[in-house]
Write a structure and sequence with these properties.
CATH superfamily of the domain at 2-171: P-loop containing nucleotide triphosphate hydrolases
Radius of gyration: 29 Å
Bound molecules: guanosine-5'-triphosphate, magnesium ion
Mean pLDDT: 88
CATH class of the domain at 2-171: Alpha Beta
CATH topology of the domain at 2-171: Rossmann fold
Largest sheet: 6 strands, mixed
Helix content: 55-70%
Number of helices: 30
Shape: elongated
Structural class: alpha/beta
Distance between the termini: 74 Å
Length: 671
């Protein structure tokens, strides 16, 4: 069977991953905000005797060397042995999309265009002459609908054909005589040097004029480097003299001129564009005055729904585990085995699984926010505040909201930030966003102490996370990360009704991760906790004399000023560093789930007052992120420096804020 390697490239949020998933049957992350795919994903399938290997690339607006995804995509096009690049394009935003297309043409990539989102183009009243466009571009253009898979047959047979006779797509580019002539002068010199000819010489020439760091470096190190650079400098100066602009701008203008011409010839637009539904919704949702209150109301409703809908399901699971524990004890009696199964496994793992309904709902809510397009608006609304207080772009808010789900993908999502220091700073803020793993802790304490205000308390704690993140960021921006963040246009995708399948799939994929975690890390931690609670032999299980009790007693004084100086919270916090759910797992292992009466809630009442419980929740909210998040930060930053910095920053912040909460609360007369 023949092989055909296909790369999917295009602007962010145009449907590349939707195409990828439809083709390969895989479930990569789809959502309605730009920048979801940050790492290339690969998959394959067979079609008409050809094995297609498909690579889903991160979305880009350009192929410069500004951010990691741009480099990932461009390296793939340059080095990847791809046969065809399928350029997925949003038909409703052709101008912007074609800017990338043109840059791939500069590379001479063997292109096929998949024109997607035609439903939106039609709604806007745009009529596209596909045949004319294909002729003018010099490569095939196929109309598709990624969502319902229409046009895929034609797309695949065209890709197959194109693979067998590759085309140099740069031939149809027209950049005006002046520019063309000078690029040609540089190009000729590049052609003569074999070490530079692994990529289109035309592209190399353009990139040299654009001052592209990576290409400059490569050319300067080649044998004809000096000669080429002399020419480049002469041409740059000449262009600047004629146009009064730096060569980068001259080239960008030439690209836009080409695109303008192309669109005039092939697209009919209504004389006056009528406001779309998205425009109408945005007038309200991103309104300067209403935007922020609307954001708060949406978050508030979200937490109310998560809490209230989940409760009956949680009670059901709780009842199930209690029954299971009692049944096991009935068989084993008070034995080591019984204690291991009931206190250790059911207490540790079951005690955490009880919170599955809340976690699923939280993921569901975040998926809906993502798929509808509201997530990007939330970032837009927060932009003003973020800029003013934090000196960060609102775009940094997207990873932060994703952090409500799980810190790991949230840290990855910071890759779309252009500047390294902005990226690091947003990465440092992610752990302050309360992830779903911390939900069980709040759920336990809120139902034990604040049952009358469950939704409100949850909302307050999440909001506190955001506020603390903003304050910490403001401090760090003035100390560790000086300098203004780069301005960036925030793209607001069209609102879409989230697809049921998409949202459910999304939620399931993430919830699966939680269940897997319960069966692995949380299980392992539970076993360790059980062992430490049972040794040395002869001590009462989970008593202060047990190993775990002694560890806790040694550390507890550190937390005494925060209001919770008992040994149990101390060990719960220590083990919680592995995974935050384990904080609750520790309590339920120590206090048992099967016992009649109030169980953990009763035990927690003996250890905490409402104020110290709140202080404890705040500490859990803010202290060291879990191992998985720290590991991701390590791999994203290539070293231990940042994860360790983060552990230190979060620990200090947690301590200080809890201290303020506890003593402030006492001063205000709370107990
Ligand atoms: N209306 C409509 N929506 C579509 C179509 N194709 C994809 N979508 C939606 O567009 C959004 C973006 O799709 P993705 O596949 O995640 O886009 P992407 O290009 O991979 O985005 P990044 O990974 O962020 O670069 C999702 O909400 C899809 O459901 C289409 O043909 N019509
Ligand atoms: Mg994608």
């Amino acid at each position: 069977m023949k092989n055909c390697i296909v790369g999917l490239a295009g602007n962010p949020n145009v449907g590349k991953t939707t195409v990828f998933n439809q083709l390969t049957g895989m479930h990569q992350h789809v959502g309605n905000w730009p920048g979801k795919t940050v790492e290339r994903a690969e998959g394959h399938f067979d079609y008409n005797d050809v094995r297609f290997d498909v690579v889903d690339l991160p979305g880009n607006y350009a192929l410069s060397a500004h951010s990691i995804e741009e480099i990932v995509s461009r390296d793939f096009i340059i080095d990847g042995d791809s046969d065809v690049i399928v350029n997925v394009v949003d038909a409703a935003n052709l101008e912007r999309n074609l800017y990338l297309t043109v840059q791939m043409m500069e590379l001479g990539a063997n292109l096929v265009m998949a024109l997607n989102m035609n439903d939106f183009a039609q709604k806007k009243g745009h009529i596209i002459d596909i045949k004319a466009m294909s002729e003018l571009l010099g490569f095939p253009v196929i109309e598709i609908s990624a969502k319902d898979k229409t046009g895929f047959d034609e797309l695949l047979s065209t890709v197959k054909k194109q693979a067998s006779k590759p085309k140099d797509t740069s031939v149809k580019l027209a950049y005006g005589d002046e520019l063309k002539e000078h690029v040609e002068e540089i190009r000729v010199l590049i052609e003569k040097d074999n070490s530079l000819n692994d990529v289109s010489s035309f592209w190399t020439a353009v990139k040299l004029l654009e001052n592209d760091e990576i290409v400059l470096e490569k050319v300067k190190n080649s044998s004809s480097g000096n000669k080429i650079m002399d020419k480049v400098n002469a041409v740059s100066k000449h262009l600047q003299d004629i146009y009064g602009e730096v060569p980068e701008e001259v080239i960008a203008n030439a690209r836009y001129a080409y695109i303008d011409g192309l669109i005039k010839e092939t697209v009919q637009k209504p004389a006056v564009e009528k406001p779309t539904l998205t425009d109408k919704i945005d007038n309200i949702v991103t309104n300067r005055i209403l935007g922020f209150p609307i954001f708060l109301v949406i978050m508030y409703i979200l937490f109310q729904v998560v809490v209230n809908v989940a409760t009956p399901f949680m009670d059901l699971i709780d009842g199930g585990f209690a029954w299971l524990g009692d049944s096991i004890l009935a068989i084993t009696g008070e034995s080591i085995l019984g204690s291991f199964l009931v206190d250790g496994i059911i207490g540790g793992v079951g005690g955490v699984l009880v919170f599955l309904p809340q976690i699923v709902l939280m993921f569901l809510a975040i998926s809906i926010l993502e798929d509808s397009g509201y997530l990007a608006r939330a970032a837009f609304v927060m932009d003003k505040i973020m800029h003013k207080f934090v000196g960060l772009h609102g775009k940094a808010f997207i990873p932060l909201i994703l952090g409500f789900g799980c810190g790991v993908p949230a840290v990855m999502a910071t890759r779309t930030m252009e500047h390294e220091s902005d990226r690091l700073l947003s990465m440092l803020l992610v752990p302050f966003m309360s992830c779903t793993a911390r939900l069980p802790v709040y759920a336990l304490f809120i139902s034990a102490f604040f049952s009358a205000y469950q939704g409100e308390m949850l909302f307050a704690i999440y909001l506190l996370g955001i506020i603390v993140a903003i304050i910490v960021a403001a401090i760090l921006k003035r100390t560790m990360f000086k300098g203004l963040s780069s301005p960036f246009v925030m793209e607001l995708p069209t609102y879409k009704v989230p697809s049921l399948k998409g949202v459910l799939l999304h939620t399931w994929e993430k919830s699966k991760g939680f269940i897997r975690k319960a069966g692995t890390i949380i299980l392992a931690a539970s076993i360790i906790i059980w062992v430490l609670s049972s040794v040395p032999f002869g001590v009462e299980y989970g008593s202060q004399e047990s190993a775990i009790g002694q560890i806790g007693t040694a550390i507890a004084p550190i937390f005494a000023p925060l209001g919770f100086g008992e040994w149990q919270p101390a060990v719960a916090l220590i083990f919680g560093i592995v995974a935050k759910e384990v904080v609750v797992g520790t309590f339920s292992s120590l206090f048992g789930v099967a016992e009649e009466g109030a169980g953990i809630e009763g035990a927690v009442h003996e250890l905490f007052t409402p104020l110290s419980a709140f202080s404890f929740m705040v500490f859990v909210l803010l202290y060291i992120p879990c191992f998985a998040a720290l590991g991701t930060i390590k791999s994203e930053t290539n070293g231990w420096k940042w994860p360790l910095t983060m552990a230190a920053v979060t620990l200090v912040t947690a301590y200080v804020v809890s201290l303020i909460v506890y003593w402030g609360g006492l001063a205000l007369g709370f107990t």
